[in-house]
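Lay summary. Proteins are chains of building blocks that fold into shapes, and those shapes determine what they do. In this project we predict the shape from the chain. Here is one chain we studied, written as its sequence of building blocks.
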Amino acid sequence: MHAQRDKLIKSSARARKKVSIDRVVTTPKESLKSKEALLTAAQKVFASDGYDGASMPKIAKRAGVAAPLIHYYFGSKENLWRETVALSLRDLRRDALAIGEATRALAPLDRLRVILQALTQHAARWPDNFVMIMAEARSESDRFAWVQENYTGVIFREVLSILQDAKDRKVIRDVGIDQLAFLLIGGVLVYFTANPVIRDNTNAEDLDRISREYTDLMFGLLREGVVNKHAN
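And here is the predicted shape, written in a compact code that computers can read:
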């Protein structure tokens, strides 16, 4: 008797939850809009509060949607975090692989410039995503391992390959390419995630201009160095 009663109670609860969700998701267009709003809000909340500090009610409130929709669309907080990261990084991963393939015939430094430009443009447009990733790197979480395996590791290996090619051709000095790759990529991440002027700027043309200027500076330093050879 008790088992049957408990089964009826659970069934009723699931039905009420479904009705509640159905009331806030009425059309495919509204469904897509709600999901996009949640991903945008999650990006901000995860970046500001960290994974552990981010709460689902806060994300839902910022998105302006009902909290049950988070579980409806993503199933869990972990999946929401991963979808938020993938929202932007899947494009960067695709671009990095395409650039690597399309520029094989170019000189190593020309290839490097193209991929660094793609990275800076991405970092300028999605600074919160890299804040999320850097926070996970400090905590050495499984989430960071997942990001490395699926996204950032692909980009890092592409940069390493280009630098190794440049080193083999004696285009660059005999330096540690691991260190140089971290210096180049880390510089991009720090500049575009820690700079409030960048993070508060939503003008796409401004961000593209800033990313180009930063790439020019970084590439100029790589080629020419920063010390004036003619200085006393």
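What the prediction tells us: The first helix runs from residue 2 to 24.
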